[in-house]
Amino acid sequence: MKPYCIPQLAKPYTDYDMIQKHTELPPFSDGRGHLLYIFLNHASSAKGSAGELYTLVTALVQLGLDTHEVIDRSNDRRGGDPMRSRQLKVLAGDYFSSWFYHLLAKSDQIEMIGILSKAIADFNVLKANLYVKMRGIRLSAEQYLRHMVQLNMRLFLSFTPMIENSLVELWEKLLAEFSQCETVALELLRSDDPANAGNGYCYWKMMETATEEERKQLQDLNLDQKEWKMLKMKYKCDSQLTDKLHQSLQSIQGLLQSVKDESLLRELEIALDRFLLQMKVSGQAAVEG
Description:
The protein is mostly helical. Helices cover about 75% and strands about 0% of the residues.
């Protein structure tokens, strides 16, 4: 199997000076992408460059959806014009997503355009349902996290019919755990800033047991950095997220122990090692325990 290099292949489509200078983008879906690449290349229907192409376009679509997702959460730390940053996020999200049409059409993969388009539509329905619950304050922290993991899995699940039958169960379980890890890692990154964390896992965890006064402050987002940090410590939000991260990593390691195919196991171990390194580089020291 060719070495995994999807992030490098994506750079010509994602690295632009104006975007880098004026706004911040969400993390690349590297863990899920690497997993998809491995399983597609073990499937007879997606050998060689097709597996690489499918992984690349899925990662670009996911980045586009994630970029649109952070618009309402955004509190850019780069300074400058907030309106320009928001406009660039809208344009960048559309731009990343548009590449999947171009790249698949250029390779005469018309059927795959339909498959991914349906997955995007399903993603938007799931997201709309989540937003309805959020607006109605009818959501627990665990429900929020489950919804986010389902959203982060949706595009990748489109490829399940292409996975070798004997590997489908392993693929789905590993995808769920990798998606959980990436979701929790992002929640941990986001949780430092009360503006970016609004309506995130920490927010919903606090809303479950906060006092009436605290709930009002949370709903109004009327908290400074110090107050937010104190509430997070009081309700042990970060430690609960860190525990979830460790649990998912342990589940991944347990699943790998059941893999009999030595070649597949070696590729999955490489993916896990790369994933751990990526989270550490991103500041996720929690995974080091």
